[in-house]
């Protein structure tokens, strides 16, 4: 039996072998966050979020620095054209690396006021970008350039990079952070990291049903509820596999939940995990950013995205 897999429910055995091992691929970051996988060159790009750099690792080329400084880039994702889209806590914007290598600001305002500091994002199959906007780039000196908060709250936004339309879809969370869709994109999971610096604040994952169309934005999501309370620490980045199981970072591990909210088990990680992404040539390798490092573990499941 592996010492890193904790099994609470037998359904976990179909997801990860009890003997699976965790590999440390790279270290040297101040605070690893926001991994994204590129199958074109079998690489992982992630943020040294507090070190203000963007890093890259591949099995053949090892570790390199892609951007320094990175304007406190946080969450990263890959759009349907293979471009890197990212949250910039420093620029308080969603940015994109164009095919020619230039970085472009896609959106940095809602209703004329600056965003707080986008933290994490996902791209839906209709090409819209959904992102969280807690104020950490304003309130935490090692996560951004400070400034004044202009938005009245910390929301989750839906942004259409084609039309430029942006509007909030979640307004009832304290510090929305990581987010992911269910495989059929009928559900949106969002982590709340408020407990990080608000005593008594939430440390849970909420789930919302996606029902709306753009012209009914006030009804876009419904039936928001707590999916799971995460201990120890709080959840941050999260992902969903092809069967709807939810993988979330936490203080001691990557925790795995069935779609019904049952905790199936844990993958213990020696540093505090912040985020994760499915990748590898078979799509079944889970890359985990944690502490100063990047880790990976092979699973028996994969993501529907990539
Ligand atoms: Mg985050």
Could you give the count of β-strands? 27
- Tell me the radius of gyration: 18 Å
Q: Low-confidence spans: pLDDT under 50, at least 5 residues? A: none
Q: How would you name the CATH homologous superfamily?
A: TolB, C-terminal domain
Structure, described:
With 306 residues, the chain is mainly β. The protein has a single domain (5-298), classed as TolB, C-terminal domain (Neuraminidase, 6 Propeller), CATH 2.120.10.30. It contains 1 helix and 27 strands. A 5-stranded antiparallel β-sheet has the order 1-24-23-22-21, with no helix packed on it. A hairpin with a 2-residue loop joins β11 (109-110) and β12. The chain is globular, with a radius of gyration of 18 Å.
């Amino acid at each position: 039996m592996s010492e890193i897999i904790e099994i609470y429910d037998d359904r976990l055995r179909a997801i990860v072998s009890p003997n699976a091992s965790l590999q440390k691929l790279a270290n040297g970051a101040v605070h690893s966050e926001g991994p994204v996988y590129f199958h074109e060159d079998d690489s992982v790009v992630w943020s040294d979020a507090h070190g203000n750099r963007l890093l890259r690792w591949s099995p053949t080329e090892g570790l390199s620095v892609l951007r320094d400084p990175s304007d406190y880039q946080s969450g990263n994702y890959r759009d349907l054209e293979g471009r890197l889209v990212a949250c910039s806590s420093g620029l308080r914007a969603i940015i994109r690396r164009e095919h020619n290598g230039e970085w472009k600001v896609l959106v940095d305002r809602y209703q004329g006021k600056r965003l707080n500091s986008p933290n994490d994002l996902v791209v839906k199959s209709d090409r819209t970008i959904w992102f969280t906007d807690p104020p950490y780039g304003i309130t935490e000196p090692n996560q951004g350039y400070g400034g004044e908060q202009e938005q009245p709250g910390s929301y989750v936004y839906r942004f259409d990079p084609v039309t430029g339309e942006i509007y909030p879809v979640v307004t009832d969370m304290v510090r929305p952070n990581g987010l992911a869709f269910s495989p059929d994109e009928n559900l949106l999971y969002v982590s709340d990291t408020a407990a990080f610096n608000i005593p008594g604040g939430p440390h849970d994952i909420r789930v919302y049903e996606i029902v709306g169309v753009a012209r009914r934005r006030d009804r876009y999501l419904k039936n928001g509820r707590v999916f799971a309370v995460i201990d120890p620490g709080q959840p941050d980045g999260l992902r969903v596999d092809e069967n709807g199981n939810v993988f979330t970072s936490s203080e001691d591990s990557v925790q795995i939940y069935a779609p019904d909210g049952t905790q199936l088990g844990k993958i213990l990680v020696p540093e505090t995990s912040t985020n994760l992404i499915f990748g590898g040539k078979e799509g079944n390798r889970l890359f985990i950013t944690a502490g100063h490092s990047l880790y990976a573990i092979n699973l028996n499941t994969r993501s529907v995205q990539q």
